[in-house]
Automatic annotation (TrEMBL):
GO terms for molecular function: protein-glutamate O-methyltransferase activity. Residues 1-276 form the CheR-type methyltransferase domain. The lineage of its organism: Bacteria, Fusobacteriati, Fusobacteriota, Fusobacteriia, Fusobacteriales. Gene3D superfamilies: Chemotaxis receptor methyltransferase CheR, N-terminal domain, Vaccinia Virus protein VP39. GO terms for biological process: methylation. This is protein-glutamate O-methyltransferase. It comes from Hypnocyclicus thermotrophus.
Amino acid sequence: MIIKIEMNDKEFELFRDYIYERSGIHYTINKKTILQNRVRRRLRDLELDSYTKYFNIIKNKSMSDPEVIKFFDEVTTNETSFFRHDKQFIALEKMVIPELLANRRISTINIWSAAASTGKEAYTIAAVLKEIPELKGKNIKILGTDLNQKVLNIAKEGKYDIKDIKNVEKKYLKYFDIDEKNGIVTVKNELKSLVTFKRFNLTDRFTSIPKMDIIFCRNVFIYFQKHTQKEIVDKFYDKLNPNGFFILGHSETLNGIDNNFTYRKFNNENLMIYQK
Ligand SMILES: C[S@@+](CC[C@H](N)C(=O)[O-])C[C@H]1O[C@@H](n2cnc3c(N)ncnc32)[C@H](O)[C@@H]1O
């Protein structure tokens, strides 16, 4: 069935409020066509002919319901890449890790990629940490979480298009099995074994999350309103060990959000790195 119907404003508002209440993601009216096209895919799969009928199917279901999972798989935006904003990973190697090691005797280092998408961020962190001699013999635990189950399945598999590693520095390529013939790269177990992925909603309570030394939460705050950002920032602060680091995306900031973090520059550059 081909659904050509447009989502009307009333339907848009139903979905907008539903998504916002459950995930914090704020769809503004100028994103109506994007939302319509995304929801339409669910209508097509279920052979439904109206947005309201679909809304009635999901409206009272829990976040772990299979259809609700599929809905949020559609309405989240998952763009990511290996070594995205690479200067932040230089700061991770040259400032963040050395300071953590200097501050405290650490046998296990816990890092959270809190909007992990397909796992490229978590595997980038793993590769960087593997190359730091001072971390030899330490237990590295990276947790990757996301609301979108589909991207997490890709993350767990660790299989990507060969084009995705074109900007990865040569010294890190040893962590990938490269299949030139089929144009596929697979993350090796050496990295995979450091990372665990699970579905987690940042607007939920953080009781199931262990204490962290570093939290990456990059390029998801842009979808949240200030008060949602503030609630999540406070929860991150509580989850961090003393002196722990919190890293935002390069176009995001805590400016204008009342918070307890200290802003840290690296080489006099603004890399959106904060410290508890
Ligand atoms: C643009 S990606 C960012 C990926 C990666 N951090 C990066 O910077 O390359 C944003 C991710 O946030 C996830 N997300 C959106 N709302 C969320 C929520 N409430 N809880 C958990 N993850 C969420 C989306 O599913 C998406 O995969």
